[in-house]
Every structure is written in structure tokens, then in C-alpha cells.
Specification:
About 25% of the residues lie in helices and about 10% in strands. It is of the alpha+beta class. Strand 1 and strand 2 form a beta hairpin.
Length: about 80
């Protein structure tokens, strides 16, 4: 059974407890994307998605991936 909560800032949070599992999964969905692009912006959303996986000033994309992998994690995105 899902639990749906709306935070004071309007963010919707959906959770589900599965007692026999000992892991956590998290997803972030934004109610915006390529469907909202103007013709002159075509592909911008997809480009930004890829830029989010390029790392930061402090950690490269490889370092982030290795740290996630070390604890059994992974990251992915789609538009």
C-alpha cells in the first residue's frame, strides 16, 4: 500500500514499506520535460539530463559512480 503525502511546500512524496526488503530506492520526478520545450529549445531537457551526470567541481562522475557502487547503489535518468 502506498502512502501519499504533500509537504508544506507542495512537493508530493509517495512511499511504500515492503517489510521483507532491506534496501531503499528513491526516485525524483519533475513535472516538466521535453513536452514543454518550444521548437527552438528542442533537445534542451535531454541535454540537461546528461549534464547532471557529469560530476561536480569536487567529485568527478567516475568518483560518484564508484562511491554509489561501493554501497550497492546506482543512478540513472530518463526524459
Amino acid at each position: 500500500m502506498y502512502n501519499k503525502t504533500v509537504l508544506d511546500n507542495g512537493m508530493r512524496v509517495v512511499t511504500e514499506r515492503i517489510p521483507h526488503l532491506h534496501s531503499v530506492s528513491m526516485g525524483i520526478w519533475l513535472n516538466v520535460g521535453s513536452r514543454d520545450e518550444q521548437e527552438n529549445e528542442s533537445g534542451l531537457t535531454h541535454f540537461i539530463e546528461h549534464m547532471l551526470f557529469k560530476g561536480t567541481q569536487k567529485r568527478s562522475a567516475l568518483e560518484i559512480a564508484k562511491q554509489l557502487d561501493a554501497v550497492g547503489g546506482m543512478s540513472n535518468a530518463f526524459t
